[in-house]
Amino acid sequence: MKRIPYLSIQAISVFLGFTFWGSGMAKLFYEHQFFGWIGPVWLIEELEPYGLGLYGKFIALSQITIGYMLVTIRYKLLGSIMMLPLIGNILMVTISLQWKGTPFVLGFLLLLDLILLWQYRDFFRPLIDEGKSRFDIKPRKIRTRNGHLVWLAGLALQFFAIQVSYWNWPAACGVVLMGLLLSGLSFKVDRMHSILDQK
C-alpha cells in the first residue's frame, strides 16, 4: 500500500482532531456552547447517575488533549496512538448505554486513525523489535524544545478558555483562537531555531 499524499494526511489529522477536540470542549464549555459535530455534549450528565461523572470529565479532557494534538498537526503520531484507547473507552460507554448508531461513527473514526498510523508504520518496527531495527525510519522535520513549549502554551489556553466560558462566551472563543494561533507558531519557532543552528 502506497503512502497517502501529504495533504490528505494533514486533512485527516485536522478532521479527526477537530472531531474529538471539539467534542471534549463542548462537554466542558458553559452550557455546552462550543462547536462540534459529534456528541453527546451531555455525556457527563448522562454518566453522573451511575457515579461516573468524574470518568465523563476524564473522557472530555482526554478528547481535548488528544484532539488538539491532531488538529494542530504537531503531534500526529502521538495523538493517533493515544486515540486508539480513547475510541475504545468511548465505544464501551456507548455499547454499555445501548446508544444506537454511535458505534458505527466511532468505527469510521477508528478507520481514519488507522490510516494515520499506517503512514507512520516505520516507527513501529523498532518497538516490535524492542530496540534498533534494520528497517529505516523516514526522516521528519526537527522539533525543538522551545517549539514544544509554545505548543503547550496553546494547549493550556484551551483549558483556560473553558473557565472563561463561564464568565463570557465571546472572550472564551477568543482565548481558544489565541491558543490555536500560538500552537501554529510552534512550527515557526522550530524553523527559526534550525536556521540559527545552521549559522
UniProtKB/TrEMBL annotation:
<feature type="transmembrane region" description="Helical">
    <location>
        <begin position="145"/>
        <end position="163"/>
    </location>
</feature>
<keyword id="KW-0812">Transmembrane</keyword>
<feature type="transmembrane region" description="Helical">
    <location>
        <begin position="77"/>
        <end position="99"/>
    </location>
</feature>
<protein>
    <recommendedName>
        <fullName>DoxX protein</fullName>
    </recommendedName>
</protein>
<feature type="transmembrane region" description="Helical">
    <location>
        <begin position="12"/>
        <end position="30"/>
    </location>
</feature>
<feature type="transmembrane region" description="Helical">
    <location>
        <begin position="50"/>
        <end position="70"/>
    </location>
</feature>
<keyword id="KW-1133">Transmembrane helix</keyword>
<feature type="transmembrane region" description="Helical">
    <location>
        <begin position="105"/>
        <end position="124"/>
    </location>
</feature>
<keyword id="KW-0472">Membrane</keyword>
<feature type="transmembrane region" description="Helical">
    <location>
        <begin position="169"/>
        <end position="189"/>
    </location>
</feature>
